[in-house]
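Saturday, quiet lab. Running sequence design on the structure tokens for the scaffold JK sent over.
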């Protein structure tokens, strides 16, 4: 796989003059998001998902641009995880198409489909590590399955990936010997094992305390910035959305579709949609329906 072009980064914010009062650290990205001119690495068009005749959502269309952190958000049960699964072709949608890296995810050509899947890294919310294997062995698994690298080289790649997520010293530990935050990091390292240009993360902060969650957000932003990886992240953690998201879409259970798209900070500050406002401002919603 050819290396991805480096992410365009914004210059560091100017240092404050010493006479200015210290500002609290902003949770918001201090970097330039890829603009509309950036290539779309994912194109979702008119997507609908239904289970047993029940439509979860329909008419969902958006692009994910190269190098951005794209967030799928919305309340419980609106179909975020189902959208993620449909995007990577785990099941056929009721309608619509998804193209990733210029290829349809549900290509009839099985070889092409497998080759595309190999280029996508996925970390599931429930994506537990294998308990009997060390972290390094867990990360080695996809390398062993999909490459012909000899064991020693596999081990080196696995340790390098663990180094990227700050677990270089924990390569020999078992999952039971590490914290929940470390396990998420190890899951990201495993998802990165084959250097995917696109990483999908399903609820990465679920079950983490706010400080550990903020550390994970930093990691995601760092990988996007330094390696140019494109992220698609499902989450309903407001802090995370504002910290990592370049752009987002919001799904809604009642609308059975998308109710907002854009920069999450702009949506927070300007959206007139009652559900979007309630979500970003943590306002209670009146009963709907
Ligand atoms: N394989 C399936 N078969 C039948 N129904 C399903 C299946 N997967 C999901 N659903 C239903 O689809 C709806 C959306 O589920 P989904 O998990 O995609 O929502 P979500 O927004 O990710 O929710 P949460 O934030 O609670 O994880 C739910 O009503 C769920 O029960």
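Result came back. Writing it out in full:
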């Amino acid at each position: 796989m050819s290396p991805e072009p480096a992410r365009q980064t914004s210059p560091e914010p100017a240092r404050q003059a010493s006479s200015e009062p210290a500002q609290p650290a902003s949770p918001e990205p201090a970097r330039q998001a890829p603009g509309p001119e950036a290539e779309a690495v994912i194109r979702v068009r008119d997507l609908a998902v239904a289970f047993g005749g029940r439509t979860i959502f329909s008419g969902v269309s958006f692009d994910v641009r190269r190098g951005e952190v794209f967030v799928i958000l919305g309340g419980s049960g609106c179909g975020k995880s189902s959208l993620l699964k449909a995007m990577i072709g785990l099941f056929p949608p009721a309608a619509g198409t998804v193209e990733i890296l210029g290829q349809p995810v549900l290509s009839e050509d099985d070889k092409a489909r497998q080759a595309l899947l190999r280029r996508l890294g996925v970390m599931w919310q429930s994506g537990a590590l294998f308990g009997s294997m060390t972290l390094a062995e867990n990360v080695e698994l996809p390398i062993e399955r999909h490459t012909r690298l000899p064991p020693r080289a596999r081990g080196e790649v696995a340790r390098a990936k663990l180094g990227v997520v700050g677990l270089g010293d924990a390569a020999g530990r078992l999952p039971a010997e590490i914290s929940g935050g470390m396990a998420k990091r190890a899951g990201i390292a495993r998802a990165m094992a084959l250097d995917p240009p696109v990483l999908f993360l399903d609820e990465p902060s679920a079950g983490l305390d706010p400080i550990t969650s903020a550390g994970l957000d930093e990691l995601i932003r760092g990988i996007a910035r330094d390696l140019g990886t494109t992220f698609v992240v499902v989450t309903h953690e407001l802090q995370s959305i504002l910290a990592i998201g370049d752009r987002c879409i919001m799904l809604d259970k009642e609308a059975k579709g998308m109710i907002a798209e854009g920069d999450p900070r702009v949506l927070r500050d300007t959206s007139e949609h009652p559900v979007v406002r309630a979500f970003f401002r943590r306002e209670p919603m009146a009963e709907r329906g």
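Notes for JK: The beta strands are 40-51, 54-65, 69-74, 95-100, 103-104, 120-123, 198-202, 230-234, 247-252, 257-262. The chain has two domains: 35-119+199-289, 125-196. Ask whether to fix the surface positions before the next round.
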